[in-house]
Amino acid sequence: MNPNPKISIILPVYNAGEFLRPCLDTLINQTLKEIEIVCILDCPTDGSDKTVQEYAEKDPRILVIKNDRNLHVGESRNVGIRAAHGDYIGFSDHDDIRELDMYEKLYAASENGRADVVLSGKFVVENGIEAGSPFLIETCLRNILNRTSTAHITPHIFKRSLIENRNIQLIDTKKCPGEDIIFFTQVMCQLNNDNQIAVVPEVFYHHIETGRNTADSPDYSSLQKVPLLVHNLYRLVGQSPYNGKMNNELWTFLILTTYSIFMSYVRKKGLNHALKEQKIIIMKDKIYHDIANGCSGTGKKISIPKKIFAFWLKRSLKMK
Questions:
Q1: Quick one: 226 exposed, middle or buried, by C-beta within 10 A (0-12, 13-18, 19+)?
Q2: Residue 218: per-residue pLDDT
Q3: Whose CA is closest to 122, among 202, 210, 184?
Q4: 180 with 303, same domain?
Q5: Coil/strand/helix, residue 77
Q6: Rounded to an integer, what distance in angstroms lies between the CA atom of residue 146 and that of residue 160?
Q7: C-alpha distance across the termini of the chain, in Å
Q8: What is the pLDDT of residues 203-255, one digit of tens each?
Q9: DSSP symbols for 117-143
Q10: pLDDT the model gives residue 164
Q11: Looking at the 3D structure of the chain, how many domains does it have?
Q12: Among 23, 72, 244, 275, which residue is least crowded by beta carbons within 10 Å?
């Protein structure tokens, strides 16, 4: 194994099934050979652990770590970060694939390690983010909170020293959803110079909808867990240089996130149950009141049903 790989790719593995081999194939066959593939076996029960061991026996760049208990993706990624040796950290889900030149192009864009973050994919293409553009970090934050683009961290790479020195970690996804969003926001709030970000306007990473990701599990998102996600984002933005500039975006995030889960409750348990849960969990939360009172509108155009939901929610919060 190369003791000084350029990039370590963190790959938590649970029950990936037949999607695991294509994922591993697009990692071991990367044109950038100086990589490390850190596989965290999160107590799979479908034989995925045997598949990983099979690949590891043939490729010394694969480092295998076994969790003693199932940690979910957030804590498993933290385990991988602590074990990584690369100059940069990349992330992969166990059922996704990527172009074979992805990490070669991302590392080249870093200018031999000068950039702290290298962005690629739809996050860049859909939002016109370019290296050297004014207020790049602020634009990234607005896009994350607006949900204007994907907040997935898998298409990008992050300098390991930045993550370690600033103690940036992923949240425990057993307790709180949105680990990508919070990690991304932590990183952006730690940067103070747009030159620390490099941009590659190409799509390399392909997210495959398999139903085998943590986010697909029924207990991943619930109204009970949403306040913790909102509290984390509110705290991070409040402690950043962008405090006071993201109120509308925070309100938009709150609306979009709460609306989707609220409607899921309506479909599963009926309107009355959803309204009851909403009242118990959200209406009594001070952070929701602060965000509602601090916003003057939404950060992006939203659909009419969401506008109605936003009006109702804001009115209800202000009445309390």
A1: buried
A2: 55
A3: 202
A4: no
A5: helix
A6: 27
A7: 60
A8: 999 988 766 665 555 565 666 778 888 899 999 998 888 888 898 999 999 89
A9: EEEETHHHHTTT--TT-TTHHHHHHHH
A10: 96
A11: 2
A12: 244
Copy the structure tokens of residue 124.
């860049």
Reading the block at residue 239, the tokens are: 């402690």
**Shortest CA distance to 90 belongs to which of 10, 32, 202?**
10
End residue of a domain, out of 216, 236, 257: 216
Residue 309 to residues 166, 234, 305, 316, Cα–Cα distance (Å): 38, 21, 6, 10
How far from 44 is each of 51, 58, 59, 245, 306, CA to CA, in Å? 11, 21, 21, 43, 38
| Spatial contact of 173 and 214, defined as CB atoms under 8 Å apart | yes
- The DSSP call for residue 295 is -
Neighbours of 34 (CB within 10 A): 16
Task: Write the pLDDT tens digit of every residue in 12-54.
Answer: 999 999 999 999 999 999 999 999 999 999 999 999 999 999 9
Q: How many CA atoms lie within 13 A of 259 on its CB side?
A: 19
The rounded distance, in Å, linking the Cα atoms of 232 and 228 is 6
Q: Which of 216, 248, 272 is the last residue of a domain?
A: 216
Q: Which amino acid is at 143?
A: N
Partners of residue 199 on adjacent β-strands: 119
The reply to whether 82 and 198 lie within a common domain is: yes
Residue 251 DSSP symbol: H
Q: Which of 156, 158, 135, 291 has the alpha carbon at shortest distance from 299?
A: 291
**Which pLDDT band, with edges at 50, 70 and 90, does 11 fall under?**
very high
Q: How far apart are CA 118 and CA 103, in angstroms?
A: 10
Tell me the three state secondary structure of residue 256: helix
> Which of 191, 112, 119 shows the shortest CA–CA distance to 155?
119
Of the candidates 219, 213, 204, 181, the one whose C-alpha atom is nearest the C-alpha of residue 93 is 213
Q: pLDDT tens digits for 144-202?
A: 888 877 778 999 999 999 999 999 999 999 888 889 999 999 999 999 888 899 999 99
pTM flag (> 0.85): yes
